[in-house]
Each structure stands twice: as structure tokens, then as C-alpha cells.
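#struct-help
A.M.: can someone run this one for me? Single chain, 154 residues.
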Amino acid sequence: MKIVLPLLFLLCLGCATVGGTGAVAGKGDIRYVNLRLIVDSLVSDDAEWKALSIRMGELRKKLSRTDGSTMKSSAVSGGLAEGELSDLGKKEGDMKRRLYPLIERAIKAVARRNDVVLVLNSTDVLYSDESVDITGEVLSEARSMKMRDDPLSR
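D.P.: on it. C-alpha cells below:
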């Protein structure tokens, strides 16, 4: 059973072509996006995230230092740094999760414009021609939507 499902999935993908004849009732295309690239790009545009990233880098650097003097104070400050780093990591994850509805709207908008019936994450694609990658278009759409949604940009 474990082998049959992936093979069935690949067979279905093989039946759908990029040229417009495809997955649903003979029409529509299959495309993919690099979701990680989109999330990282949108987050890196944010000033709050930039400050967060700098602070996380400082803490990682502090934790990676091996200082032989005063083990007790080093352990205490290291524990505080680890706690802060953990908190900042959670905040970073929350920032990224808040972007998912925006990215979903952008993917749907691009898919509708291009008569796409299925959009896969690039991590799930074994092979494709670069012409089916809509990451750049989705990223542009998401940035435009973000600007429209941002009350400061109106």
C-alpha cells in the first residue's frame, strides 16, 4: 500500500499536461510554488522581523562562544539567552504563520488568472519544467495584496 499510493499519484501527474489539457475534465494546468521562498521573502520585508533576526543572531553568537572563565555566570547568562532565543523563535514562527492566509489568497488569485486547477508546493515536486513554477508571480501578488491591506500604505 505504501508504494501504490505514490505510484498512483505520479501516474495522475503524468496524465495531466502543462499545455492546458489536464487534471479536471480536460482543462486547467498544474503549477507549483516554493512556499518557503515566498514566506521568507515576505517576512524579510518586515522591519520587525529584521530586528528580530538581528537579535536572534546575536544570541546564537553569544551561545556559541566558549568562555572558560566564570562557569557559573556563563551558565546563568547562557540559560537566559537560550530562553530569549526560544521566545524569539516562537515569535518568528507566529509572524510566518500570520502570512499564510495572505499567501493562500495570492495563490488562488494567480491560479484563477492562469486557469490553474492544482498548485503544489515545490518540496512535493520530483521533476518539472521551470515554466510551471509560479513562485515569482505569487510573491508579487502577495506583496501587492499586503500593500493594499496595510493601513499605512493607503
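A.M.: thanks! The chain has one domain: 15-153.
D.P.: also worth noting: Confidence is low (pLDDT under 50) at residues 1-25, 69-73.
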